[in-house]
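Dear colleagues,

For the upcoming journal club I promised to circulate an example of a predicted protein-ligand complex. I picked one with S-adenosylmethionine because it came up in last month's discussion. The inputs are reproduced below in full, followed by the predicted structure.
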Amino acid sequence: MNVLRFDTISLFPQMFEAITNFGITSKALHKMSEPLWQWQNWNPRDYANNRLGYIDDRPYGGGCGMIMQAEPIEKSILAAKQNHINSNFAGSLVIYLSPQGEVLNQNNIANLLNLVLTKNLGLILLCGRYEGIDERVLNLYVEKEISIGDYVLSGGELAAMILMDAMIRLLPKALNHQDSAVLDSFSEELDGGLDFPQYTRPEVFHGERVPEVLLSGNHQAILQWRLQQSRLRTQQKRPDLFLKMQTSSKNSKNKN
Ligand code: SAM
């Protein structure tokens, strides 16, 4: 299988320690016989056209805030692309993390993972700062914009890490049996619904007992209960998602 490769373009590479140094994403990077994913950062400051490393300037037309200049971003993108070619990737896919992009969900994350692995592409994740990036370089190089939700962050790094984490945990071998993503919220096994309630020891907590069926050892009954609970809580917590589940199950019944 092709390796999952991320090249971030960011002024703050240290922020990525949150995923390179902790948890499942760290294990998948450092503790496997072969790393399951690769990461390298390209810092636009290294391509600044001045000795002080400034890469931002005031917006034409006035207004507050600063804009990241096109040239250092372009050079960073080209360096990352060249590196992909040198490392035998078939090409690159440039994504700009932006509040104006397509909003992430489990489905488009899985599709993106499938695309880059089957086509052997390296992902270039462009992380903006300040008021954003000069539009001209975005028009030239960005192939996809991705948002993590309808709110504005101060930089694209957290958004990039959310995308990276969500992709890495879908890689076969990234999760061990206990962490399995198979029955996570939004999974096919749950018809796209929410995860069911989970319990661990002790059996009684503040007078509340673990549901009897979970102690029964009857795997069929446990599975039935979990699927039922998943549907129930999806209906209660996310009526929008529940409606979608019903529509898609109706559609697939009509097809058959
Ligand atoms: N002026 C921009 C706008 O309103 O569209 C927002 C700039 S924001 C302060 C700085 C950077 O944070 C953006 O360039 C982008 O990379 C990142 N960012 C902010 N909100 C985001 C979101 N919801 N999803 C992904 N990236 C986001």
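Two points we might discuss: The chain has a mean pLDDT of 95. The first strand starts at residue 4 and ends at 9.

See you all on Thursday,
B. R.
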